[in-house]
Amino acid sequence: MGKKASPGRVGIAAVAAAAGVSPATVSRVMNGNYTVDAQIAARVRQVATELNYQPNPLGRSLVLGKTETIGVIVPDLANPTFQAALHGVSRAAAKDGYRVLIADSAETTSEEPILSSEMRRRCDGVILCAPRMSIEQLSGIAESLRPLVLINRPDDVPETPSFSVDYGHGITELAEHVLSLGHRHIAYLAGPARSVSHGVRLASLEKFAAAHPEVELRFLEAGSSFESGHSAVDKVLDAGVTAVLAFNDLVAMGLLSGLHERGVKVPEDISVTGFDDIPFASYTMPPLTSAEVSIDVVGERAWQSMRGLLRKEPAEGPLKHTFEPTLRPRGSTGPAPRG
Amino acid sequence: MGKKASPGRVGIAAVAAAAGVSPATVSRVMNGNYTVDAQIAARVRQVATELNYQPNPLGRSLVLGKTETIGVIVPDLANPTFQAALHGVSRAAAKDGYRVLIADSAETTSEEPILSSEMRRRCDGVILCAPRMSIEQLSGIAESLRPLVLINRPDDVPETPSFSVDYGHGITELAEHVLSLGHRHIAYLAGPARSVSHGVRLASLEKFAAAHPEVELRFLEAGSSFESGHSAVDKVLDAGVTAVLAFNDLVAMGLLSGLHERGVKVPEDISVTGFDDIPFASYTMPPLTSAEVSIDVVGERAWQSMRGLLRKEPAEGPLKHTFEPTLRPRGSTGPAPRG
DNA sequence: TTGAAAGCGCTAACAC
DNA sequence: GTGTTAGCGCTTTCAA
């Protein structure tokens, strides 16, 4: 037997008793079902207010089979990209009366499938943000997670809407930008090996290099933080390049700061680009050339797609949505020095 | 009548039927209740695996009266301070097997009480982060939200644990730091009027000014963003001060950038301090004097307090916990110019 | 050690 | 228009 109702607890039964009607009638009133006599409805409402009745969403969810909650799973809640995506989803979902249950997989690839399905049981649907698990794993559990929407995981998972920033396009635009400025010796300051978005950049740059045999493209390890850019200065100078494409704005700013300390002039001696176009980027010295991405908009669109699935609206248009970053050329890039 | 069990759905009843036992026995097995015969337990477990049985947490929550979920309500999910607090709570709660349901009140003070109690019905407890509502409102609903824990709301709410950064102490340390460097004309670049943490800084600075009649302290409006600092340059120069205490690091960095554009030397002409000690602060030119706060630790401690409440452990020690920021003197502050 | 049965709080089909 | 009743999926008391 379940726990006895605690004496203080005000449930639908208490309201029904106090108003002299059946629980069903109270339920109808609370749900705005207008087959209820206006007088009775008014009385029920008044009693509910007096008793400070708060419907228990658990009971409701159990019988209705829906929780009006969606789960968002991110690899790292401390990462600004995922924070922005979460914000976009949460704000958009809230407008439609949905709540967000979050889970931070802490980059533990192996836990992701378990975490996701655990999450799914408590929610009406799941949004997976940049999942690290293999495509085999992902495809394997996709069915059990539906409704499922993917953010920043551009793999083709059948029947699964996916919203991703086209990092490959962005980094190519940046590469072409410095190419057009005459640079032929270019370095890419790589992001974390595990990062999907780094992998995408890498692949695109390899294509770029293949298409431009006149360009010498170097790949240097760095990371995703300001510090990693700052400590990559020596590597960059040793490489003897005239332009550096950093993994993101933070890395670029770290590099900028390191180069400044060495007395290397930007963009006269070396051109530097970032990625993401964070608000700071316009204010560095010199202002940072970057590629703007609006990951919160991606999150918002992911929600809208989820909403469609929840409403069982027939899917329209393609499942795969790609957001192109916008090139923001600024002072940190200039003509290649005449060598 | 509730929705009929969908034919595909695997519930505890399906497992019980397949294993030839009662639902009660399956329940006992799933919950590690060892009054079950080892053979039967093994068979039940095997059947559960074969059928891929996933217990429905909703049914469980309903009967147990707990969801193993806590709610975190923040005024703005885009604010780095609240993101960090959320991260701290979420990571710590996850270690104890709890999930986090988030709500962004979007700075709508009036909605906060409703949002909070709505949240509370779905969760076992609520953590309110920097709630904007009045102390009257807060005290009014506190009882109905318990277990309740407060972050960055140092008001005395009876019986309610509260964890806050002592912004007043931090800004006073910064003020004393520039005072000790000989500055007598100091400006405070104020944060958003609504921000509680701004209010605290303001009050402390007024105390500081009263205690140091030799100091002329000016209050200048700014905001919380890089841009607001950048566009406050004229105000600062007009004020004719030799030291500026910015609301936070972002504002300070904006100011630094603006001063640089004007050819004003830092710290030779003007000293500048930030607040928060974000990772960037060590890398600006010159490196920024700041006050370090670890809001994620605050979040973590808030969770631990909540965990104690959930376990009904007798509260020990004080309810109110204050975290002192640590002064980080760096190159952006120096001796006052000789006037 | 196991099963039957009640009940957590709610909704909805059905009967009146 | 309203009440009765069954049932959502689970746990737990009680009896066997």
Q: Can you tell me about this structure?
A:
Two copies of one chain form a homodimer. By secondary structure, chain A is an alpha/beta fold. Chain A has three domains: 12-64, lambda repressor-like DNA-binding domains (434 Repressor (Amino-terminal Domain), Orthogonal Bundle), CATH 1.10.260; 69-165 and 295-324, Response regulator (Rossmann fold, 3-Layer(aba) Sandwich), CATH 3.40.50.2300; 167-293, Response regulator (Rossmann fold), CATH 3.40.50.2300. In chain A, 44% of the residues lie in helices and 16% in strands. Chain A has 13 helices and twelve strands. Chain A has helices at 12-19, 23-30, 38-51, 57-64, 80-95, 112-122, 135-145, 167-180, 196-211, 226-230, 233-239, 249-262, 295-310, and strands at 69-74, 99-104, 125-129, 148-151, 162-165, 185-190, 216-221, 243-246, 271-273, 290-292, 320-323, 326-328. Chain A has a six-stranded parallel beta sheet with strand order 2-1-3-4-5-11, with helices on both faces. In chain A, helix 1 packs across helix 3 (38-51), helix 6 (112-122) packs parallel to helix 7 and helix 8 crosses helix 9. The radius of gyration of chain A is 27 Å and the shape is elongated. The relative contact order of chain A is 0.11.
Brief overview:
With 339 residues, the first copy, chain A, is of the alpha/beta class.
What is the topological layout?
2 copies of one chain form a homodimer.
Chain A: H1 12-19, H2 23-30, H3 38-51, H4 57-64, E1 69-74, H5 80-95, E2 99-104, H6 112-122, E3 125-129, H7 135-145, E4 148-151, E5 162-165, H8 167-180, E6 185-190, H9 196-211, E7 216-221, H10 226-230, H11 233-239, E8 243-246, H12 249-262, E9 271-273, E10 290-292, H13 295-310, E11 320-323, E12 326-328
Parallel strand pairs in A: 1-2, 1-3, 3-4, 4-5, 5-11, 6-7, 6-8, 8-9
Antiparallel strand pairs in A: 10-12
The structure holds a DNA duplex (16 and 16 nucleotides).
